Amino acid sequence: MSGVIPKSIGKLENLIDLALYNNSLSGLIPPSLGNLSQLNKLYARNSNLEGPIPPSLGKLKNLFVLDLKMNYRLNGSIPKEIFRLPSLSWYLDLSYNSLSGPLPNEVGSLANLNLLVLSGNQLSGKIPDSIQNCMVLEQLFLDNNSFEGNIPQSLTNIKGLSILNLTMNKFSGNIPDALGNIGNLQELYVAHNNFDCSCLETL
Questions:
Q1: Where are the transmembrane segments (predicted)?
Q2: pLDDT confidence tier of residue 201, bands split at 50, 70 and 90
Q3: In the CATH scheme, what is the homologous superfamily, with its name and number, of domain 2-202?
Q4: Cα separations (Å) of 66 from 1, 34, 103?
Q5: Where are the domains of the chain?
Q6: Contacts of 142 (CB under 8 A, 6+ apart)
Q7: What does the pLDDT look like over 63-117, one tens digit per residue?
Q8: What angle do CA 121, 99, 77 make, to 5 degrees?
Q9: How far apart are CA 2 and CA 23, in angstroms?
Q10: How far is it, in rounded angstroms, from Cα 16 to Cα 120?
């Protein structure tokens, strides 16, 4: 399927699931998608979409899956409104786009989210301490970005974390000893950063 997503799609007010993935679409994500107040799942990965993510998606209060992966021309910062979606619980996947800027403090509002995937973008700055409020998060993928600074101690408060991928960033300093206290952690990836290697002895 090709062409643009029509603005009139926002009139489908009873729509529950919307799957647009693996298409040859073009153009922007229409802000009118934010009018789909009953939407539970939005799948638009690998669909050739471009431009910024519209903040109006933050109005999708019943959404529990948002998948915009592999739209390589999707750019700009991640709207803070996305992180305030109260029902987002299954997963949020914005990986392998061209998103930039810092990870907003509002990420800590994702209190019900199980899986967060932001790999393969141009995100930068430090991981905000507010991420510790993602208490049910099980898998966190921040690899292949430009995050920097230390791994925040607050990350170790996410006790249910089983996979943490920080590969290919600009992290430095020591890896927190407390990572070794996350009992559920099964996979830890920190390769290709600027860590002090001596800290690995404590894990």
A1: none
A2: low
A3: Ribonuclease Inhibitor (3.80.10.10)
A4: 20, 12, 17
A5: 2-202
A6: 103, 118, 119, 123, 127, 165, 166, 169
A7: 999 999 999 999 999 999 999 999 999 999 999 999 999 999 999 999 999 999 9
A8: 140
A9: 7
A10: 29
